[in-house]
Amino acid sequence: MNKVLSARFGKIRPDSVEEYIHAGGYEGLKKAMSMDHVAAIEEIKKANLFGRGGAAYPTGIKWEQAYAIKKGPKYMVCNADEGEPGTFKDKHILSEDPFELIEGMTIGAYIMGAKEGYIYIRGEYAAIQRIVKSAIENAKKAGYLGKNILGTDFEFDLKVVSGAGAYVCGENTALVESIEGKTGRPRQKPPYIKNCGLYQMPTILNNVETYSCIPWIIKDGGEKFSSLGTEFSGGTKLMCLSGNVKNRGVYEIPFGMTLRELIYDLGGGIEGGRKLKFVHLGGSSGSCFPESMVDTKICYYDLKKAGFSLGSGAVLVVDDSHCVVDYLKTVMEFFEEESCGKCTPCREGNQRMVEILEKFTEGTATMEDFNKIKSLAQTMKTTSFCGLGQSAPVPVITLIKYFEEEFIEHINGKCKAGVCSMSGKAGK
Amino acid sequence: MARRRLKMEKVREILNRYGNSKDNLIQVMLELQNISGTNSLPHEWVVFVAKQLGMPISRVYSVITFYSMFGTEPRGKYLIEVCKSGPCYVRGAKNVLQLLEEKLGIKPGQTTDDGSFTLIQSSCFGACDIAPAVKIGEKVYGNLTSEKLSEIIDSYREGQHNE
Questions:
Q1: Architecture of the domain defined by B78-157
Q2: Does pTM top 0.80 for this prediction?
Q3: A91 near B133, Cβ under 8 Å?
Q4: How far is residue A338's CA from residue A122's CA, in Å, rounded to a whole number?
Q5: CA A303 centroid distance within chain
Q6: CA–CA separation, B59 vs A158, rounded Å?
Q7: What is the mean pLDDT of each successive set of 10 residues along chain B, which is 163 residues long?
């Protein structure tokens, strides 16, 4: 299988420029510096690369728009705040091959004319921050960062900035606020960060995995990258397989593979002879769906057609020993905890959602509560200020869609899986 | 008193290293918490930092109370974080929490009497491939069973992780 991102994982010392170069590194940057800026962006457009953080915005278009903006200075920013539950792919890039990210950002800086860049790494990855910092220092010493890169007058400096434990900082504008040392609450959009981002300047912000695809695309060409995947999704994807599956871990797969192949062929299937109950795709803010849907191809278009989004590439497999309602309560507790509190639908909505779901697990919920959840989910989805509140109800909506009968059972005082206490039923 | 003054010197040094810049408030506070010895930010330091950076104290507190990694009350030498997100939940995180509560005799948010451990529940820290997982300080432990968890706690109690 073709590996774009994980080819060097475990094979080189992560912070050694020499070993990175020996393994084919920095060819992309050299080529980019001999290319016309617009031609380089054209290659990225041809690659059919979509943002790997979760929003799946076409990277080539994003870079074309950013390039067209005349004011400056422009900043390169990398979102390494990987906080979506079930996602641990960026961790591997950062700790096993940080130079592919650094090279990708450097190529971007060359094209955009940016002199400064920031890698915002979540605070929980403190040890990994040190690896990336060391890689940056070594790149400077070797002339791949800092002044006079590769003997030219191109200069670019990179800094690592630490998060401090806030899921919402994965939202682009909140992340920028956090780099500025403030509370990570999202900003009003527009203006978009491509125009008015870090320090109110044009900012090019991408996920770790997105940047890490760039060196390969420039080196081997956009068309070749695109051909690794499907017509609608170029390249490969790092998928994070977790939950009740035998072989958990990060897998680099070509787009077009089905979820079933990932879960059963690579992942070895469900553990302990149990059955797959549902898959939670793309992190806690993604869709949940039953086994009947797992033949869907991992491809932005096919997933969208089925009503799902790939998100960050997290695939959480849940077996039939679990209760849908209790699981959902756990997921919503996460959003209740992580809501930044700026807007009412998200701050209050997630809290109420947890309260009502608790009634289900205690066996005191009524049909009215069920209708409330459904209505509240719609309200949050349509009126929340940022992506956090808009996507938090997605697991609610999809679990109700596919497992409505389990919610009804709980109203009738039964938890099929035997997980919920139903302790409130007697006193009702 | 001398020790306290020494610590203040250290605070000043960290602030200087970050150019006494408001932009670096979070980075400064992370370093300060690391050297505090109480896994938290003493009020005295917060006041000092606010003054040095020319910020209202309330603004500094608004930042540090927003981020979950900061503590404003003294915490144990080791923070034990139990992941409660989906991937750990389906692998039995509830049992892990229960075992830790029994072993340490504390509930989430509390600190052991000897000041060694503070137990907290946390959001996903990316150890889903080895769930259920806990994080103690910077270290992550996964694929936990009750025996393994017990051994880990004992190894901390015996001082095997002292710097």
A1: 3-Layer(aba) Sandwich (3.40)
A2: yes
A3: no
A4: 14
A5: 16
A6: 28
A7: 79 97 98 96 97 98 98 97 97 96 98 97 97 97 97 95 76
Taking the C-alpha atoms of residue A116 and residue B97, their distance in angstroms, rounded to an integer, is 43
- ipTM of the shown complex: 0.96
Residue A176 and residue A197: Cα distance in Å, rounded? Answer: 7
Smallest Cβ–Cβ distance between A181 and the set B22, B126, B128 belongs to B22
Q: Which CATH number fits domain A324-411: 1.10.3720.10, 2.40.10.220, 1.20.1730.10, 1.20.1440.230?
A: 1.20.1440.230
DSSP assignments along B101-141, one per residue: HHHHT--TT-B-TTS-EEEEEE---S-GGG-S-EEETTEEE
Q: Tokens 């920031």 label which residue?
A: A118
The class of domain A236-319 in CATH terms is alpha beta
Q: Which residues of B touch A83 (CB under 8 A)?
A: 123-124
- Nearest residue to A192 (alpha-carbon basis) of A72, A62, A302: A62
Nearest alpha-carbon partner for A339 in A273, A296, A372, A384: A384
In chain B, which residues touch A (CB < 8 A)? 21-27, 29-30, 62-63, 66-70, 84-87, 89-91, 122-131, 135, 138
